[in-house]
Amino acid sequence: MSKNLYQQYDSPNNQGVGGLQTGLPQIRDGFTPQEIDLGRYLFFDPVLSLDGSMSCATCHDPNKGFGDGLPTSIGKDHIKLDRAAPTLWNVGYLTRLFWDGRANSLEEQMEITLFSELEMANTPENLLRTLNNIDNYKRLFAEAYPERGKQEEIQLDEIFKALAAFQTSLVSLNSKYDQYAHGYHKALNDQEIEGMNVFRSFVARCAECHTPPLFTNQQFAVIGTPEPDGLPLDPGAEIPFNDKSMRGAFKVPTLRNIDLTAPYMHSGKFETMREAVEFYTQGRGHAVPKGEKLYIHWHIWEPQLSDYELDRLVDFLKTLSDESFLPKIPDALPSGLKATL
């Protein structure tokens, strides 16, 4: 894993609001270049889906901040799914995956997605049969995992691990904000600095959940965002955690590359960042459906930010964009299929 300047800071990132020179949590590490590159091929290859129509990149398009630009994603047979595709930037630092936190690892995340009837809809048996019948993949797996011998069959855990390896390479830590945080103060202009100060203030309280430098505290919060018109409340983390106090709770998302991933929130309800930040000024629980009793996070209140302050917040959020390690989309895939976005 390449080094970054945050590794020289030893202050914890899970206390307070996150200073400019705050350390990062530990990232998944120890993957080989061969594993990462194998994972890159797999990520863009629609051969992983049951009917060869979808790849991981269908919902996590590198050209759209590793989202898909849709309010909620489209699954197998054009099924409209319930939630937006979260970005994968810096996903190697995260300890819980999916909006509702139902996966504890990147491998578990991949297993759920590959075999979900609503998403890639494959089966373990079919996936293994397919990949083991592709000589190019057998060669690449043998190179990535030489300890198990060239003649052995591709295994499920190798598929999950290779995809996890690629995802850990999606690191975004060289934005204008990062350059400012590391001491180059000319990286941000006056309006962006004003926005950062609003973001970190005890009035707006943005940084208490979107804690720098990862811009998430990796916790779950009930904030009461509205669902798309006509749809019932999404119970969120209540289901996997079996906890009624988490009804309507979702993982606090990273704000890294947020300018590239519209629309916003788990439901894709807000088309612009301006709409998203304005939501927090409109009153605690104002969008909660009648008849629902939600335990709104205590940071959600009524900061009464002015239009000017909201505009400056948006200016600051745009400084979190960095695609220095944007991966190359393969020109050719081992399966012979075309990369699917």
Report what the structure shows.
By secondary structure, the protein is mostly helical. It has two domains: 144 residues, Cytochrome Bc1 Complex, Chain D, domain 2; 145 residues, Cytochrome c-like domain (Cytochrome Bc1 Complex, Chain D, domain 2). Helices cover 30% and strands 2% of the residues. It has a two-stranded antiparallel ribbon. It is globular. The model has no long low-confidence stretch (mean pLDDT 93).
Strand coverage percent? under 5%
Spatial strand arrangement across the major sheet: 1-2
CATH topology of the largest domain: Cytochrome Bc1 Complex, Chain D, domain 2
Main sheet overview: 2 strands, antiparallel
> Which structural class should the secondary elements be placed in?
mainly alpha
The SSE order reads HHHHHHHHHEHEHH
Low-confidence stretches: none
Keywords:
2 domains, 30% helix, 2 strands, mainly alpha, 341 residues, Cytochrome Bc1 Complex, Chain D, domain 2
Task: Please render the helix and strand layout as text.
Blueprint: H1 33-44, H2 56-59, H3 106-115, H4 124-132, H5 135-144, H6 156-168, H7 176-181, H8 190-200, H9 206-209, E1 220-222, H10 238-241, E2 249-251, H11 273-279, H12 307-317
Antiparallel strand pairs: 1-2
Brief rundown of the structure:
The protein is mostly helical.
